[in-house]
Specification:
Layout: E1 23-24, E2 29-33, E3 54-60, H1 66-75, H2 90-94, E4 98-105, E5 108-115, E6 122-131, E7 137-138, H3 140-143, E8 158-168, E9 174-186, E10 189-203, E11 212-215, E12 224-226, H4 244-251, E13 257-262, E14 270-274, E15 287-290, E16 294-298, E17 301-310, E18 313-317, E19 324-325, E20 335-336, E21 343-346, E22 353-355, H5 357-366, E23 372-374, E24 379-381, E25 390-395, E26 398-401, E27 408-410, E28 418-420, E29 422-424, E30 430-432, H6 434-437, E31 440-445, E32 450-455
Parallel strand pairs: 5-11, 6-10, 19-20, 21-30, 22-29
Antiparallel strand pairs: 1-2, 2-16, 3-4, 3-14, 4-5, 4-9, 6-7, 6-11, 8-9, 8-12, 9-10, 13-14, 13-31, 15-32, 16-17, 17-21, 18-25, 23-24, 25-26, 27-28, 31-32
């Protein structure tokens, strides 16, 4: 894989985010705590009501997620490019999963990537210039956008004067253009005069369907700059503006929460709910835990954001009747959790779970027959018909278990080669990805700065 920047990995042995001091992950990236999401102070937790403001999450199997660029680099393995793939190989699995939703912008309908790690809404415009990652001009088809935005067909479009949109990614992708104001409708919620990036120059690895992106991260990651010349932009001097979801709850009165239910049926994808929770089967009991927003920094610039929480530890055993001690005290009748106090990233764009090495090793040994480690690809492989152990994550004194179906990933769909859904992080960041997220209803309460989870490991969104 070709990278615009070579990542030399020198991983630290643990991640604890103390204050706002950056923690070195390798010689390219650091990670640090971010300021809280809201400028108007923390609010009380939102009431969890079922909302009709929902969107179907369409999984794009022919593209890698933006978060995978940073997850794999900070995992300590190196990195992945977002080059497309036609089969479900190990590289494709490590490339994460892209979820798309439908939006209406200026009366025009688009499919866009939804990304919890970035903030800007942006669309490619008619007549955009396409480049490869070496900045060589290419035909528009190379960037593989879906239908492009036509500002001349919208009576509500207005250019934001003396500003430009400028964003780049660790694998060499970049986007430039104007900043505009436009009417956005998403999940039945309309926001007039929403600021967004109008992309006229793109080095992008698209999927042939999506036309842009809507970010659900904090406003501190927006990418508008003063002036109209991107080459003159000074990093760390971006002009902050309200992303789409922020305007929904600050201007339109939508409760400041969004929630996700990821489905293990790839043809379904999942559901994203704005301002509430979707009408899906789940446990009536929710646990809550503070959001510890973490920012990824490159060359002292904030480039990506993750929603991070603190967990009670991991539960794993070959004995299906094992009782675990969620209180992490002395109890000889129960098995203690492993990794109490671990900071973990909750990321729907990551396919697998990346956990401390001792947790991955212990889980691998609990399969029957045990999973085997392949050092040539730095991954645990497992017999496709192996007996699966129990595996769970303790949060708020409750263990959220993973459905056995999610612990074995069939790479080719024919039972010939399978990897474990839990993989080592090599001393880097701990990630709760799709393997775990398919088993919970995840609520991001931005106003109260907390995440809430309910179990749904035996349910699908269509039940």
């Amino acid at each position: 894989m070709v990278w615009a920047v070579v990542l030399f990995v020198c991983v630290t042995t643990a991640l604890k985010l103390n204050g706002y001091q950056p923690t070195a992950i390798n010689d390219r990236f650091t990670i640090s705590r971010m300021p809280r999401a809201r400028t108007k102070g923390v609010t009380k937790p939102s009431e969890l009501k079922v909302t009709s403001n929902v969107l179907s999450l369409s999984k794009r199997n022919d593209a890698n997620s933006l978060s995978s660029i940073y997850v794999q680099a900070m995992r300590g393995k190196g990195g992945v490019s977002r080059v497309k793939n036609g089969t479900t190989t190990l590289n494709a699995v490590e490339g994460g999963q892209v979820h798309a939703v439908e939006v209406t912008v200026g009366g025009q309908n688009f499919s866009v990537v939804v990304d919890t790690g970035s903030s800007d809404p942006w669309l490619a415009i008619n007549g955009f210039e396409c480049y490869d990652l070496d900045s060589t001009p290419m035909p528009q088809s190379y960037c593989e956008f879906g239908p492009t935005y036509d500002s001349s067909q919208s009576p509500t479009y207005a250019v934001v004067p003396d500003q430009n949109f400028n964003i780049s990614y660790a694998d060499g992708e970049y986007l430039n253009g104007a900043m505009g104001n436009e009417t956005f409708t998403m999940a039945g919620i309309t926001v007039p005069n929403q600021q967004f990036g109008v992309v006229s120059i793109a080095a992008w690895l698209g999927d042939g369907v999506t036309s842009g992106l809507v970010g659900l991260a904090y406003r501190s990651l927006t990418s508008a700059y003063g002036g109209t010349t991107p080459g003159s932009d000074v990093r760390n001097q971006a002009m902050l503006y309200n992303p789409l979801f922020v305007n929904m709850y600050e201007q339109q009165g939508v409760p400041s929460i969004f929630s996700m239910a990821i489905d293990r049926d790839e043809s379904v994808g999942g559901i994203l709910a704005l301002g509430g929770i979707p009408n899906v089967k789940h446990s009536p009991y929710f646990v809550n835990t503070p959001i510890l927003p973490a920012g990824v920094n490159a060359a002292k610039e904030l480039v990506y954001q993750f929603y991070t929480i603190d967990i009670d530890g991991f539960a794993f055993s070959s004995n299906q009747s094992t009782q675990f001690n969620v209180y992490n005290n002395v109890n000889p009748l129960k098995t203690p959790l492993v990794g109490n106090g671990t900071d973990v990233i909750v990321d729907s764009g990551t396919s697998l779970c990346y956990v401390p090495d001792n947790v991955a090793d212990g889980t691998a040994a609990a399969f029957n027959p045990p999973a085997t480690y392949d050092s040539s690809v730095d991954a645990y492989f497992v017999d496709c018909d192996a007996t699966v152990p129990i595996f769970g994550v303790g949060i708020g004194k409750k263990i959220f278990y993973v459905n056995p179906a999610d612990l074995i990933i069939d790479l080719y769909g024919d039972g010939s080669s399978c990897v474990m859904g839990i993989q080592p992080n090599f001393g880097g960041l701990t990630i709760l990805g799709g393997t775990w997220m398919k088993n919970v209803l995840a609520v991001f309460d931005i106003g109260a700065e907390q995440m809430r989870f309910a179990a749904r490991q035996w349910s699908s969104v269509s039940d």
